[in-house]
Design a protein that fits this description.
The chain has a domain of 280 residues: Aspartate Aminotransferase, domain 2, CATH 3.40.640. Helices cover 42% and strands 12% of the residues. It has 15 helices and 12 strands. It starts with a helix and ends with a helix.
């Protein structure tokens, strides 16, 4: 019997061991990759194995040499990226899919849950009858949305860009604010529009797109013979959490005949907090919307969703040419109840709505997350994280050695350490940030607000609570005070 065959039927004991190790990891009471020395790297850096060691030994190595030295992202105090470690139920659902449904297609329960979970997301975020498709994250989700926008714009001019290429002999423009995620430019490049086709529209002091600047840019392009194609608005920017004036932008886009895309990869769940829900007014005007369940919903990285009113546009933009070994091997005409095999039909052909043929069953993860806590639980999480950003802002306003650089809108707060007599506050806060990262406890990122370096915590982790907000501020003050003392001592010694 081969080693692989011998392991059949042993998932339960092996997963129990791995699960115990992951539970231990999540206590963060062990050395990490930074402080664990070089021994873990030396032990893993082995030549290509000629003989296998078996599953039990692999699990041993995972538990002792791999898992303890993983990423800091799952830590409750990590607030640097807008991604988190997966929740327990998301991990379980993804594991189940990896074994029971290695592809998302076929007449299976997993394919069904792709559709059901997309409908749940649309219902949760007020997207009405919009139809969705999962992809690997916001980068691809934006690409799909702009691909649909390109398809519609060129079809109106009698051209099929996906089938025949870009036949227009005139430039095309996509409008996005200076705060828009940089993957929008990449999407324009991949779609053949060119990264320079993305017009950077100025923002107001709150980081929101200026509608007057947008209107002026569209009018200038029309006069220059450029074809305006789409407007990208933000429902929660990654820098500051700002929400563009969606109603005004959507109305302008409609009046101008432009596709209106809303990037809600991070911020769309924010509308569940009734205190800021009015900021999302205008979402109904959108032609496409994206959201990433691997952000606020608590999935592991690798799940984004794109919604459009007409999924046929996605199909015409991204459909693959038929392959005999795929389409020729199914028999969708077999319709007798109870007689169909799971491979008699592909189910919903998600592979024709995006850029992936082989793709994991992502819907089961979203389904499990929403089944576990419901919309009430997600709303509580969103409110908790928004409250944390507000609390950091209040502490920054109240303390003489802190400065609030921008009022928070969602769960991001931008502030910095200040002290009398410090000439270069940017350099001081950069050093402060590096010490925070090396302590590996409370870890925001940095950004720039009005040209000034800011500490930027973004609270989205399911395991993150108000304690982490208070601890972060305390750590900033402690480290900032120490750096100022060190600077004073150095100056005195000089």
């Amino acid at each position: 019997m081969t080693t692989e065959a011998a392991e059949t039927g042993r998932l339960q004991p092996l997963l129990e061991r791995l699960g115990a190790g992951l539970d231990a990891y999540l206590t963060f009471e062990h050395p990490d990759a930074l402080h664990g020395g070089a021994r873990w790297r030396a032990r893993l850096d082995a030549p290509l194995p000629q003989q296998g060691i078996g599953a039990d030994a692999v699990v041993d190595e995972l538990l002792h040499e791999v898992v303890p030295f993983g990423s800091a992202i799952p830590r409750p105090g990590f607030s640097g990226f807008i991604t988190t470690g997966a929740t327990t139920v998301a991990t379980l659902a993804a594991t189940a899919a990896s074994v029971a449904s290695p592809q998302r297609y076929g007449l299976t329960s997993f394919n069904f849950l792709e559709a059901l979970s997309l409908r749940w997301l649309a219902d949760a975020f007020g997207l009405g009858a919009m139809q969705g498709v999962y992809s690997s994250g916001g980068s691809t989700a934006n690409l799909l949305a702009l691909g649909a926008a390109r398809q519609q714009a060129f079809e109106r001019l009698g051209c099929d860009p996906a089938a025949d290429g870009l036949q227009l002999h005139r430039p095309v423009a996509v409008y996005a604010s200076t705060e828009t995620h940089h993957t929008v430019q990449r999407a324009a490049g991949v779609l053949g529009l060119g990264r320079r086709a993305v017009r950077a529209i100025a923002c107001d002091a709150g980081g929101r797109m200026r509608v007057d600047a947008l209107r002026a840019a569209i009018e200038a392009d029309r006069r220059a013979g450029v074809l305006p194609m789409a407007v990208v608005a933000n429902a929660g920017t990654t820098n500051t959490g700002a929400i563009d004036p969606l109603s005004s932008i959507g109305e302008l886009a409609k009046a101008q005949g432009l596709w209106f895309h809303v990037d809600g990869a991070y911020g769309l769940p924010g509308l569940l907090d009734e205190r800021v829900a009015t900021l999302f007014k205008g979402l109904a005007l959108a032609d496409s919307v994206i959201v990433d369940p691997h952000k606020w919903l608590g999935a592991a990285v690798g799940i984004g969703a794109t919604f459009v009113h007409d999924r046929g546009l996605l199909q015409r933009a991204f459909t693959q040419e038929p392959a005999h070994y795929l389409e020729g091997s199914v028999e969708p005409a077999a319709t007798e109840p109870g007689t169909q095999h799971s491979m008699d039909d592909f189910g919903t052909p998600y592979f024709d709505y995006g850029v992936e043929l082989s793709a994991p069953a992502r819907g089961v993860v979203v389904w499990a997350l929403l089944r576990e806590i419901g919309i009430a639980g997600l709303r509580e999480r969103v409110r908790r994280h928004n409250d944390m950003a507000t609390a950091v802002a209040q502490m920054a306003r109240a303390h003489p050695n802190l400065e609030l650089l921008l009022e928070p809108t969602l769960s991001i707060c931008c502030f910095r350490y200040v002290a009398p007599g410090v000439d270069d506050l940017d350099a001081l806060n950069q050093r402060l940030h590096r010490r925070l990262m090396r302590e590996n406890r409370n870890m925001p990122s940095t950004t720039r607000i009005g040209g000034r370096l800011a500490l930027r915590p973004c609270f989205v982790g399911a395991r993150t609570g108000m304690a982490q907000a208070r601890e972060l501020v305390a750590d900033v003050l402690r480290i900032g005070d120490a750096l100022v003392r060190e600077g004073a001592l150095a100056a005195a010694a000089a």
